[in-house]
């Protein structure tokens, strides 16, 4: 099964909640979930290529938001 050409569309809607201990948890696909970020990093090249200029595809928007997040998080580390 190809990650970007699946017939089963993942549920992207979700909620972010703050647990009693102050940690965040989320449902659906969220960039606050380390597992989601790890999956994007491991498959970044293929995801980027498959979603290039496909503005009706949710993958394009996930990659777009991920790149903005990375730019902000790594602004002090230009080599990354």
Summarize the SSE layout with pairings.
Blueprint: E1 16-18, E2 24-26, H1 34-42, H2 44-51, H3 58-73
Antiparallel strand pairs: 1-2
Main attributes of the structure:
80 residues, mainly alpha, two-stranded antiparallel sheet, 3 helices
What can you tell me about this protein's structure?
By secondary structure, the chain is mainly alpha-helical. The chain has a domain at 29-80. Helices cover 41% and strands 8% of the residues. The chain has helices at 34-42, 44-51, 58-73, and strands at 16-18, 24-26. A two-stranded antiparallel ribbon has the order 1-2. Strand 1 and strand 2 form a beta hairpin. The longest helix is centred in the C-terminal third of the chain and has 16 residues, at 58-73. The chain is globular and about 40 Å long. The termini are far apart. The mean pLDDT is 82.
* Count of strand segments: 2
Pattern of helices and strands? EEHHH
- State the share of residues found in helices, binned by percent: 40-55%
**Count of runs of 4 or more consecutive helical residues:** 3
What oligomeric state do these chains adopt?
Answer: single chain
Please summarize the sheet with the most strands.
2 strands, antiparallel
What overall form do the CA principal axes indicate?
globular
Mean pLDDT: 82
Radius of gyration: 14 Å
Low-pLDDT runs of 5+ residues are none
Structural class by sheet pairing and helices? mainly alpha
Q: Cα distance, first to last residue? A: 30 Å
Query: Within the largest sheet, what's the order of strands?
Result: 1-2
What amount of the residues lies in strands? 5-15%
């Amino acid at each position: 099964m190809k990650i970007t050409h699946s017939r089963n569309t993942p549920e992207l809607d979700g909620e972010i909640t703050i647990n009693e201990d102050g940690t965040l948890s989320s449902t659906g696909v969220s960039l606050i979930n380390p597992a989601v970020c790890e999956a994007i990093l491991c498959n970044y090249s293929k995801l980027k290529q498959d979603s290039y200029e496909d503005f009706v595809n949710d993958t394009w928007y996930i990659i777009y938001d991920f790149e903005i997040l990375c730019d902000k998080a790594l602004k002090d580390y230009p080599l990354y």
